[in-house]
C-alpha cells in the first residue's frame, strides 16, 4: 500500500536525520504532502501516533527545510505549506507539532520567497541543488516539486498560488493556536505580515496585489482577538510595524496600511477604551517618526491627517492641542506642526466655531502666525505659505471672513488694512531668505481677496520694493501680489504704487519679466480703460439727477462717469516717473501688434464725454481740460493705431486748444490757477501735436498744409511753453515730409523753415542782449518801486526775457532735428551770454557786449544758453572740442541746481558722442553724486549707470569708490537705485569689482591716506575733495553707514573671494597696523582698524565650517546645481579657511594685541570681540592651532572666557536692574526671568546662555543677601569695616599694627591667584 510506504519513509527519514542534504528535505516534504492528501483517518492517526514520540526531531527537520535558501526559496515555501497542512489536518495534535521555532522558520521562508533573487543567482542555486541530489526517489521528488533537470525558467519561477495557499492556511492556523503564550511568535508574525506589502515589488506582474493585501489584512485582523493576548498591546505592535508603510510615498502598501488602521483598528476601538488609547497615540507616534526631508514629511503629514480624520471628536481635539504644543518644541516638531495646522483646519469640521477665543481653529491660527517669526528660515517660509493656504480656505463664506479678519486684527474699526500681521509682513517681505520673501508675498496675495485690496501703505510700499529683488522668483511673486491688489482695489494708493513699481519691470534683464509686465499692463491698464470708454454713452454724458455746478460737485460727477478708478489711473500714467516705462511698454505692445483699436477709441470717447459733461453745465470752454493722462496715452498708442484716430476729433481739439493758447482762464481766478491751467493746456497741446504727427500719413493733403503753416507761425512768435516747442518743431518736420513728394524735397522744405526760424530767433536774442546792456548804461531816473510805471516796466521786461529764452530754446530744438543748419551767427551770441561778466572777451569789437552779468540779470536766459550751446556742440564736433572745458568748469562752480542738472545731462551726452574728449572730466561729473540737490544726485546716478552699462565709461579710478556713497544716500529713491545697481547689474557685469576695490574702499570711506593705493601726500586740495566722498568719524551713525556699504559689497562676492578678502584685510590693514605703517593714534587710522575688526567679525564674510549641509539649506536653496560638486567645493573652502586662520590671522592678532595694550588703545575691546567671534567655531581646535605656544593658548582662552563672563554679568545686571520695575496690572518680573529674557534675545550660543543664567543667579543671591542685611540692621546700612570690632593683625615684628595693614601683607595678598568674584564688573 502506498500510504504505508510513505509513512514508513517519513518515520525512517526523521529518525535517520538528513544533515545538510537538500534532497533529503525534498523527499521528506513531498512524502508528507502526499500522505496528508489521503482521506484515510486510520493512516493519519497511525502517523500522529508514530511521529509524536519524535516530534522534536520532526520539527527540527522541518524547521531546517523551511530555512533552506536554495531554488529562490521554493523548497522552503513548499516545506511551510506542508507544515501548515499538517497542523490543519484532521485530528492532528496541534500543540504537539506547534513550535515557536518552526513558526519563525515559516515566516522567514515567506520573506525569502518574496525577496526574489536575480535569474542568474537562481540558476546557480538550482544547479548546485541538483548536484547534491542522490539516492532513492530523487528524480521523482524533484519532478514532483517542479525542479527536474532540463526544466525551463517558467517552471522554477514564482508561484503565486503556492504563496496564497500558505498565507490562507496560516490564517486558518491562527484560529487553532492562540499566541498569547508565544509573544515572540506573535511579534514576528505581525512584523512579517506588515512587511509583505513591501516585498513583492518584483512580482507585480505575477501577483494579485489586492488579494495579497486582503489576506494580510485578514491575518492581522485575526490577531486583534483576545485569544491572542491583550488587544491593546497587539494593536500597538501592529501600528508600530505598519509605521514604515504609513510614512512611505504613493504606493498600494500605504493605502493598505491606512485602510487597516482607519477601518479595522478604529472600528474595534469604539468599544474598547484601552484600544482607543492606542489609536489616539498613533498619530503622535507617527509625528516622532516622520522624516525631515520635505517630500517624505509631506507623506507623513497626509497619513497622520487620514488617521486623525477617522478618530472621534474628543480625540481629534486632544491631537490638535498636541500639535499646538509641537509648535513650541524642536525644529522638526515645529515644522510638522506648521504643515499639520492647515490640513487640520481644512479637514476637521467648524475650525472657527462661533469666533470666540476658545475655538481650536483660532488657537491654531495664532500658533501659525507665531511660527511666521520662527528663527528657522524654513519654518518661517512654510508657516507663511500655510497661513496663506488657511486664509484662502477660510475666505470662502462671509461668516468665516469676518471671524478671520478679527483674528488677524483687520477689524472694522481699523482702517487702511492695518492688523497684527502688518508688521509681520513688513519684516518677512524683506527677509534675508528668498523662500521667506516669496512666501510672504504669497500671503499678501491671499490677504488681498480677504481685505479687498485695501492694504496698509507700508505693505504696498514693501511689495513695490520687492519688485526690484535680485531673484527672479521674488520679482514675479511681487508683481503677482501687487497686481492682484490692483485688480481687486482701484484705490488711489494701490494704483499709484502699482504704476510706480510694475511698469518699470519692462527694463528687466529677464525676458520673462518683461513679458509679465506687458501682460499685466495690458490687462489692468489698457483693458480697464477700454471697458470704461466703451461703457460710455455715444450720444453724450448723461447728467446725474442731483448735479451741482460747483467744482467739487463736477469732480464727483466726472469720477462717477468713469468707473474703476480710470481718472486716477490716467493721471498717474503721465507722472514723470511712470511715463518713460509706459512709453516703452506701449512701444513693445505695438511692435507685437497687441494694441487694439478699441483702446484709441476709448480714449477719444473719454475726452469727448468729459467735454460734453463740461459744456452741459454751461461752463466756459476755455476752463475745460481733458482728463489728465488721456492725451498722453493717446499719443503713445496712436503710433501703432493711426487709422483709429479721427481727423475731425484732432482738428476740433487743436482749434480749441490753439484758441486758448496764451489767454488763460477768464474771470477773477488767481494767478496760481491760471498758471496751472496754462501748464495743463501746454501739456495737452504737446500730446495732441504728437498724436497729429503719428497720424500725419492718414491726414488729407490740404488740412496738413494748413496745419503746417499754422505751426510755423506759432513757432516764430516765440511765446510757446518750453514743453511745446519740441512738439511743434517735430510735428512741422513730419508734416513737411508728408507734403513733399521725395526725400530731397522734404530736406529742402525743412532746411528752409529751419534757417528762417534760426534767423528770427537770433535777432530776438541779440535784441534782448542789446536792451539789457543799454539799460545798464541808462542815466534815466528809475521808476519808483511799486508805482504803475514800475509794474509796467517789469511786465515788459519779463515778456522780453521770456521771448528771448523761448528763442534760445527754439534754436536748440531746430538744431536737433536739422544738425546741418548754419549756426555761425548764433554761436557768438550764445558765447556772449555764457561768458557775460568776463573781461577777457575776444570778440569785444565784433559782438554786442553784455556789460552786465546775465547770470544775475537774466538767469533763465543764462541757463538756456548753456543748454542750447550743448545741443549745437552735439551737432558740431569741432565746436564741442572748444567748449567742453567750459561746460566742465560751469558744472563745478554753478550754484543753480537746474543748470547743474542740465549740464550733467549734456556732459553724459558728450560722453556718448565724444568719449575720448570727455574721459578726463568723468571725476568732475561724479562729484555731482554728492550734490546738495537730490534731483541732481539722482540724475547723475542714473545717467552714469547707463553709461557704465553701455561701456562708455569704465569702472576704474575713483568712479566705483564714489558710487559707494549712493548706497547710504539720504534719499530713499537713490538708495534703492544703488542697491539694484550693485545687487543686480554689477554682480553680473563686473563680479570682481567689489573684491578688487574692497580694501581701498575702507581707506577712502574713512578718509585715511595711509594706504598705498590712496596715498597722495603732495596735494591738500585732493584730500579736501576726497572728504566729500568719505564718511569720517567714529560715531555710531558713521560706522553704521560704512558697515552698510561693506556688507553690500561682501554680498556680491563669491566664497573664494570672501576668503581672499579675509586674507587681504589681515595683510593690508591688521598687519599694516602692527608693523607701524598704519598710525593707530590717528583718528582715521583708528576708524580703519575698527572697521576691519567689524568686517572680520560680521556674518557676511564668515564661511560656515560645518561638515555637512543642513536640510534647511537644501530645501531653501533657490538655484539648482550639482550637490556633490557644491559639497566638495564647500569642503575645500572650509579647509582653506582653517589654514588661513592658523597661518595668517592668529599671529597678526597676537602682535596687534600687544601693540594696542602697550598704547592702552580703546581698540583692544574691538580686537577681543573680533577674535572671540573668529574662534567661536574652533573652540575645540584652539589647542591644535596654538600647539607651538601653550602659554599663549591659555591666555587667549582665559581672555575669551573673561570677556564672555563679563558680558554675561552685564546682561544679568541689566536683568536685575529691570526686575523691580513693573507697569500697571502686570506681574512683576523676577531678575532671573529678566536675565533669561535678555539671554534669549541677545545670546546665541549655549555656552554664553549658561553663563548668563549663572551670573543672573549670583546677582539674585547678592541682592537677597543685601536685603537680609538691611532687615537685620533695622533698615540701617551695613557699617564700614573700620567701625566694626575685628581681630587685629599681628605684625611681622611681633607687635600689633594699628591703622592700615603693612605693605608686606598687601603684597602677599596681591600675589595670590585671583578668581572671578561676585562683585567684579
UniProtKB/TrEMBL annotation:
Keyword Coiled coil in record: yes
Condensin complex subunit 1 C-terminal domain boundaries: 899-1067
GO MF term (any one): histone binding
Source organism superkingdom: Eukaryota
InterPro entries named among the record's database cross-references: ARM-like, ARM-type_fold, CND1/NCAPD3, Cnd1_C, NCAPD3
Protein's name in the database: Condensin-2 complex subunit
Gene Ontology cellular component terms for the protein in this record: condensed chromosome, centromeric region; condensin complex; nucleus
Gene3D superfamilies in the cross-refs: Leucine-rich Repeat Variant
Organism: Microthlaspi erraticum
Keywords: Cell cycle, Cell division, Coiled coil, DNA condensation, Mitosis, Nucleus
Coiled coil: 1168-1195
Amino acid at each position: 500500500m502506498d500510504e504505508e510506504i510513505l509513512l514508513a519513509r517519513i518515520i525512517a527519514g526523521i529518525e535517520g536525520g538528513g544533515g545538510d542534504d537538500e534532497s533529503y528535505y525534498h523527499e521528506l516534504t513531498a512524502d508528507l504532502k502526499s500522505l496528508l492528501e489521503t482521506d484515510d483517518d486510520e493512516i493519519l492517526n497511525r502517523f500522529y501516533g508514530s511521529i509524536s514520540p519524535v516530534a522534536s526531531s520532526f520539527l527540527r527537520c522541518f524547521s531546517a527545510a523551511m530555512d533552506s535558501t536554495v531554488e529562490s526559496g521554493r523548497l522552503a515555501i513548499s516545506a511551510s505549506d506542508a507544515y501548515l497542512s499538517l497542523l490543519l489536518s484532521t485530528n492532528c495534535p496541534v500543540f504537539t507539532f506547534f513550535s515557536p521555532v518552526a513558526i519563525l522558520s515559516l515566516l522567514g521562508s515567506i520573506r525569502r520567497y518574496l525577496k526574489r533573487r536575480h535569474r542568474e543567482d537562481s540558476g546557480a542555486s538550482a544547479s548546485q541543488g541538483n548536484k547534491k541530489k542522490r539516492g532513492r526517489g530523487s528524480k521523482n521528488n524533484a519532478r514532483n516539486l517542479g525542479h527536474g533537470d532540463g526544466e525551463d525558467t517558467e517552471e522554477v519561477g514564482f508561484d503565486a498560488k503556492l504563496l496564497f495557499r500558505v498565507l490562507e492556511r496560516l490564517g486558518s492556523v491562527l484560529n487553532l493556536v492562540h499566541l498569547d503564550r508565544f509573544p515572540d511568535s506573535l511579534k514576528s508574525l505581525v512584523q512579517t505580515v506588515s512587511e509583505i506589502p513591501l516585498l513583492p515589488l518584483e512580482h507585480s506582474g505575477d501577483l494579485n496585489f489586492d488579494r495579497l493585501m486582503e489576506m494580510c489584512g485578514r491575518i492581522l485582523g485575526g490577531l486583534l482577538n483576545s485569544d491572542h493576548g491583550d488587544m491593546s498591546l497587539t494593536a500597538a505592535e501592529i501600528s508600530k510595524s505598519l509605521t514604515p508603510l504609513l510614512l512611505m510615498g504613493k504606493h498600494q502598501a500605504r493605502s493598505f496600511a491606512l485602510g487597516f488602521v482607519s477601518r479595522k483598528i478604529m472600528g474595534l476601538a469604539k468599544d474598547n477604551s484601552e484600544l482607543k488609547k492606542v489609536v489616539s497615540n498613533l498619530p503622535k507616534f507617527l509625528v516622532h517618526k516622520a522624516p525631515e526631508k520635505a517630500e517624505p514629511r509631506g507623506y507623513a503629514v497626509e497619513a497622520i491627517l487620514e488617521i486623525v480624520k477617522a478618530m472621534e471628536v474628543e480625540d481629534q481635539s486632544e491631537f490638535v492641542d498636541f500639535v499646538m504644543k509641537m509648535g513650541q518644541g524642536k525644529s522638526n516638531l515645529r515644522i510638522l506642526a506648521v504643515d499639520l495646522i492647515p490640513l487640520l483646519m481644512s479637514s476637521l469640521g467648524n475650525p472657527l466655531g462661533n469666533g470666540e477665543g476658545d475655538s481650536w481653529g483660532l488657537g491654531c491660527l495664532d500658533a501659525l502666525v507665531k511660527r511666521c517669526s520662527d528663527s528657522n528660515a524654513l519654518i518661517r517660509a512654510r508657516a507663511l505659505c500655510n497661513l496663506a493656504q488657511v486664509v484662502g480656505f477660510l475666505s470662502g463664506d462671509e461668516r468665516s471672513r469676518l471671524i478671520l479678519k478679527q483674528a488677524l486684527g483687520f477689524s472694522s474699526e481699523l482702517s487702511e488694512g492695518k492688523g497684527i500681521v502688518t508688521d509681520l509682513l513688513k519684516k518677512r517681505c524683506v527677509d534675508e531668505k528668498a523662500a521667506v520673501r516669496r512666501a510672504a508675498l504669497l500671503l499678501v496675495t491671499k490677504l488681498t481677496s480677504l481685505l479687498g485690496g485695501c492694504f496698509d501703505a507700508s505693505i504696498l510700499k514693501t511689495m513695490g520694493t520687492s519688485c526690484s529683488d535680485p531673484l527672479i522668483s521674488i520679482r514675479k511673486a511681487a508683481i503677482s501680489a501687487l497686481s492682484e491688489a490692483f485688480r481687486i482695489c482701484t484705490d488711489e494708493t494701490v494704483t499709484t504704487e502699482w504704476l510706480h513699481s510694475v511698469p518699470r519691470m519692462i527694463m528687466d534683464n529677464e525676458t520673462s519679466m518683461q513679458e509679465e509686465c506687458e501682460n499685466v499692463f495690458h490687462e489692468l491698464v489698457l483693458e480697464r480703460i477700454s471697458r470704461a470708454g466703451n461703457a460710455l454713452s455715444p450720444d453724450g454724458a448723461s447728467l446725474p439727477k442731483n448735479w451741482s455746478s460747483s467744482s467739487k460737485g463736477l469732480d464727483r460727477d466726472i469720477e462717477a462717469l468713469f468707473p474703476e478708478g480710470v481718472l486716477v489711473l490716467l493721471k498717474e500714467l503721465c507722472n514723470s516717473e511712470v511715463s518713460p516705462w509706459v512709453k516703452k511698454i506701449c512701444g513693445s505692445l505695438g511692435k507685437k501688434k497687441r494694441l487694439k483699436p478699441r483702446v484709441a477709441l476709448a480714449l477719444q470717447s473719454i475726452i469727448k464725454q468729459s467735454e460734453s459733461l463740461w459744456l452741459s453745465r454751461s461752463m466756459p470752454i476755455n476752463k475745460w481740460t481733458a482728463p489728465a493722462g488721456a492725451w498722453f496715452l493717446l499719443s503713445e498708442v496712436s503710433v501703432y493705431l493711426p487709422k483709429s484716430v479721427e481727423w475731425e476729433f484732432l482738428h476740433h481739439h487743436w482749434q480749441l486748444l490753439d484758441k486758448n493758447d496764451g489767454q488763460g482762464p477768464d474771470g477773477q481766478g488767481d494767478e496760481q490757477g491760471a498758471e496751472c491751467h496754462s501748464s495743463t493746456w501746454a501739456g495737452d497741446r504737446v500730446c495732441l501735436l504728437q498724436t497729429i504727427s503719428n497720424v500725419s500719413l492718414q491726414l488729407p493733403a490740404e488740412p496738413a498744409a494748413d496745419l503746417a503753416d499754422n505751426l510755423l507761425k506759432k513757432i516764430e512768435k516765440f511765446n510757446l511753453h518750453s514743453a511745446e516747442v519740441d512738439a511743434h518743431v517735430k510735428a512741422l518736420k513730419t508734416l513737411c515730409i508728408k507734403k513733399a513728394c521725395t526725400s530731397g524735397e522734404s530736406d529742402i522744405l525743412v532746411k528752409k523753415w529751419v534757417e528762417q526760424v534760426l534767423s528770427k530767433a537770433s535777432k530776438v536774442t541779440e535784441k534782448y542782449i542789446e536792451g539789457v546792456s543799454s539799460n545798464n548804461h541808462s542815466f534815466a531816473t528809475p521808476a519808483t518801486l511799486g508805482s504803475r510805471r514800475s509794474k509796467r516796466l517789469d511786465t515788459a521786461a519779463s515778456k522780453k526775457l521770456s521771448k528771448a529764452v523761448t528763442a534760445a530754446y527754439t534754436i536748440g530744438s531746430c538744431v536737433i532735428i536739422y544738425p546741418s543748419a548754419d549756426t555761425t551767427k548764433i554761436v557768438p551770441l550764445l558765447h556772449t551770454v555764457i561768458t557775460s561778466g568776463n573781461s577777457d572777451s575776444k570778440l569785444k569789437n565784433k559782438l554786442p557786449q553784455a556789460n552786465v552779468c546775465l547770470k544775475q540779470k537774466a538767469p533763465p536766459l543764462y541757463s538756456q544758453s548753456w543748454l542750447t550751446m550743448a545741443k549745437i556742440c552735439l551737432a558740431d564736433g569741432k565746436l564741442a572740442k572748444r567748449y567742453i572745458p567750459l561746460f566742465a568748469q560751469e558744472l563745478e562752480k554753478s550754484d543753480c541746481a537746474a543748470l547743474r542738472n542740465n549740464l550733467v545731462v549734456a556732459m553724459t551726452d558728450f560722453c556718448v558722442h565724444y568719449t575720448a574728449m570727455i574721459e578726463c572730466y568723468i571725476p568732475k561729473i561724479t562729484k555731482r553724486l554728492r550734490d546738495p540737490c537730490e534731483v541732481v544726485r539722482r540724475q547723475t546716478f542714473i545717467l552714469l549707470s547707463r553709461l557704465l552699462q553701455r561701456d562708455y565709461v569704465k569702472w576704474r579710478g575713483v568712479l566705483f569708490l564714489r558710487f559707494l556713497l549712493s548706497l547710504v544716500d539720504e534719499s530713499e529713491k537713490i538708495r534703492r537705485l544703488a542697491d539694484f545697481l550693485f545687487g543686480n547689474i554689477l554682480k553680473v557685469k563686473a563680479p570682481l569689482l567689489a573684491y578688487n576695490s574692497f580694501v581701498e574702499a575702507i581707506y577712502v570711506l574713512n578718509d585715511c591716506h595711509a594706504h598705498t593705493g590712496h596715498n597722495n601726500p603732495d596735494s591738500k586740495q585732493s584730500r579736501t575733495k576726497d572728504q566729500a566722498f568719505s564718511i569720517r568719524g567714529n560715531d555710531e551713525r558713521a560706522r553704521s553707514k560704512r558697515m552698510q556699504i561693506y556688507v553690500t559689497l561682501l554680498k556680491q562676492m563669491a566664497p573664494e573671494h570672501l576668503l581672499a578678502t579675509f586674507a587681504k584685510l589681515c595683510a593690508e590693514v591688521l598687519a599694516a597696523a602692527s608693523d607701524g605703517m598704519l598710525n593707530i593714534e590717528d583718528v582715521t587710522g583708528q576708524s580703519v582698524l575698527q572697521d576691519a575688526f567689524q568686517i572680520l567679525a560680521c556674518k557676511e564674510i564668515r564661511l560656515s565650517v560645518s561638515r555637512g549641509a543642513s536640510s534647511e539649506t537644501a530645501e531653501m536653496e533657490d538655484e539648482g546645481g550639482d550637490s556633490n560638486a557644491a559639497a566638495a567645493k564647500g569642503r575645500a573652502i572650509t579647509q582653506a579657511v582653517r589654514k588661513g586662520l592658523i597661518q595668517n590671522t592668529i599671529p597678526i592678532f597676537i602682535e596687534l594685541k600687544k601693540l594696542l595694550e602697550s598704547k592702552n588703545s580703546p581698540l583692544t575691546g574691538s580686537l577681543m570681540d573680533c577674535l572671540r567671534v573668529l574662534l567661536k567655531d574652533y573652540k575645540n581646535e584652539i589647542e591644535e592651532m596654538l600647539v607651538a605656544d601653550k602659554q599663549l593658548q591659555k591666555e587667549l582662552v582665559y581672555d575669551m572666557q573673561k570677556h564672555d563672563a563679563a558680558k554675561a554679568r552685564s546682561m544679568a545686571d541689566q536683568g536685575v536692574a529691570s526686575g523691580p520695575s513693573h507697569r500697571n496690572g502686570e506681574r512683576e518680573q523676577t531678575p532671573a526671568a529678566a536675565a533669561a529674557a535678555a539671554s534669549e534675545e541677545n545670546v546665541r550660543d549655549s555656552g554664553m546662555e549658561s553663563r548668563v543664567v549663572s551670573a543672573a543667579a549670583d546677582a539674585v543671591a547678592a541682592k537677597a543677601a543685601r536685603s537680609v542685611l538691611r532687615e537685620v540692621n533695622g533698615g540701617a546700612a551695613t557699617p564700614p569695616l573700620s567701625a566694626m570690632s575685628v581681630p587685629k593683625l599681628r605684625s611681622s615684628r611681633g607687635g600689633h599694627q594699628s591703622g592700615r595693614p603693612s605693605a608686606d601683607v598687601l603684597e602677599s595678598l596681591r600675589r595670590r591667584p585671583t578668581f572671578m568674584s561676585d562683585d567684579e564688573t
